[in-house]
Specification:
Layout (H helix, E strand, L loop, with lengths): L17 H9 L8 H6 L11 E2 L2 E2 L11 H10 L9 H12 L17 E4 L2 E4 H10 L7 E4 L14 E4 L1 H11 L15 H12 L5 H8 L3 H8 L9
Antiparallel strand pairs: 1-2, 3-4, 5-6
Helix pairs in contact: 4-5, 8-9
């Protein structure tokens, strides 16, 4: 890439970095240097973040759309670069109200992408943990505070919807509620659904071994084995 500033050590066998290769594969093999992508993700000339706060430009390396990881995440969540701070006093008041709530509806706390948190008894913790402690007077300790309503990721902290459990119960609840990240929604995913379809189709012809597919798609043979045997990407038919 003539304009990509990513470390050459991260380049794949195709000559593209992981980001450019992923973009190209998701856009039908289009050249990552095309005007279309340049227009979507203009790289800064010096490879640094272009965000400016308090009259000073950020000096961190850019990640996407000319922004470093911190500023890109902030712009992606909120649509702008303004800092947002939630009042801990407001969250503590909501925790006390949720601990005394007697209705059957969810009590939703504001959260962005993760579960709401609060500083309670001078310690940072999850809001559900604070609600349980406030309602029962007992520290959950090593136990996990789980949900019966499956709206934990949506910010529900109602004491009527909470119970104590262990990690195994938490994983079972997550599976039943289908909250686990699958496929391309998993942040660690190396592949995309079109690539999975292509891998399985080529392997089904009998002309492509797992080792050959691994070289073609620049992944490990173990990844290919997991895909073609449907141990991973089970949701893709």
């Amino acid at each position: 890439m003539s304009w990509c500033t990513r470390d050459v050590r991260k380049y794949t066998a195709s000559g593209l970095c992981d980001t450019c290769w992923t973009w190209s594969s998701r856009n039908g093999g289009e050249d990552p240097e095309s005007p279309k992508r340049r227009r979507l993700q203009p790289p800064p000339a010096d490879g640094l973040c272009t965000a400016v706060e308090d009259g000073k430009r950020c000096t961190l390396p850019h990640l996407a759309k000319g922004k470093c990881n911190r500023h890109w995440q902030r712009e992606w969540k909120h649509g702008d670069l303004r800092k947002r701070r939630r009042s801990n006093g407001e969250m503590q008041a909501l925790v006390r109200a949720a601990a005394r709530f007697t209705g059957d509806d969810c009590v939703l706390a504001p959260c962005e992408r993760s579960r709401p948190s609060v500083t309670y008894r001078k310690e940072p913790m999850g809001a559900t943990r604070a609600v349980w402690w406030e309602a029962t007077g007992n520290d959950p300790g090593d136990r996990q505070v789980l949900h019966t309503c499956h709206r934990g990721d949506g910010g529900c902290i109602s004491i009527r919807h909470l119970y104590l459990g262990d990690h195994a119960q938490n994983m079972q609840d997550m599976t039943e509620a289908e909250r686990q990240a699958r496929g391309e929604t998993n942040g660690n995913a190396e592949l995309t659904e079109p690539l999975v379809h292509e891998m399985r189709a080529l392997h089904a012809t009998g002309d492509w071994s797992q080792r050959a597919l691994a070289r073609r798609f620049n992944v490990s043979q173990g990844t290919i084995h997991q895909v073609v045997t449907r141990k991973t990407w089970k949701q893709v038919e």
